[in-house]
Amino acid sequence: MIAARDTSARLDLTPDNPRKMLLAASTGGHIAQLVRLAPGLGATDDSLWVSFDSPQTRSLLRDKRTLLVPYIKPRDWRGTLKAVGQIDKALAVENFDAAVSTGAALATAALPAARRRGIPALYIESVSRVLGPSLAGRMLYHSRLAEMRTQHRSWAGGRWGLHPSVLETFSIEDRVPPEGRPLKIFVTLGTIQGYRFDTLVDALLATGLMGEDTTWQLGYTTRDDLPGRVVQDMDAASFDRALHEADVVVTHAGVGTILGLLEAGVYPVAVVRRAGRNEHVDDHQAQIAGLMNDTRIGTAVEIEDVTAQVLLEAAARRIATTDGQPAPERR
């Protein structure tokens, strides 16, 4: 039986109080946020990172201790239970001061496993959840096994404490767009399995700006009718090279991809996946799109608003990052 802890007391996780932690998050935005938040939580170098094996995690976690478990599809309860077993084996042979997760399915595996071993647990809801918690967040909230935090003041309260947002550390700058040549455009659709995004591909083709200087990283979407270079996935070096060679980067409104672009200084054009078109499990990308536009750290649009003008305007902007503290204009 797992004993609930008193989650009314806030865990003292700060850089001034370094701790060895179990840090667990699914791929995409979840692991990207946790990597950026971990230094501010005081995670030591001997902390153990739990995620799925992917080009993203191999890049983000290349200098860290890792436990890579098989991919868990959205709402895959059997896969979650298998991950619990693997995580519990790791917890049985070493001690941790705290367990922290930013979701999604791995949060529901790692944090209960940690509590079973008497390890204090913290769940930080994804910044993409602007209006309220995700399914994983709701489950953990009702379990009372972890301290709960949101990155949005609008719905913080009660047992949902407020955690500084990862998006507050970025600001926008102008840059000189290219002249006298076609735009070099990089299209990256993320790593989520089981969901195509053909509507975005078609909308980009309709702008008339796609050509031989376009690079497409399509993930689960497969196409044989595209100009330029087409790949399903990229290793970290190839991805970084494509970013820095591009004048414009177009992506889905997935927080993991967006965070990676922001940290690379890229002003992203993000397009919302919709569940009604079978492009994602739900419509939470609309929330992160609204947040992007509110904070002006990118341009987020619905599929019908993908135009040549949007891409041309993005080519004249870039992102500046800070040392992990909120940018001056956000303080």
From TrEMBL:
<protein>
    <submittedName>
        <fullName>UDP-N-acetylglucosamine transferase subunit ALG13</fullName>
    </submittedName>
</protein>
<keyword id="KW-0808">Transferase</keyword>
<dbReference type="InterPro" id="IPR007235">
    <property type="entry name" value="Glyco_trans_28_C"/>
</dbReference>
<dbReference type="GO" id="GO:0016758">
    <property type="term" value="F:hexosyltransferase activity"/>
</dbReference>
<feature type="domain" description="Glycosyl transferase family 28 C-terminal">
    <location>
        <begin position="240"/>
        <end position="302"/>
    </location>
</feature>
<dbReference type="Pfam" id="PF04101">
    <property type="entry name" value="Glyco_tran_28_C"/>
</dbReference>
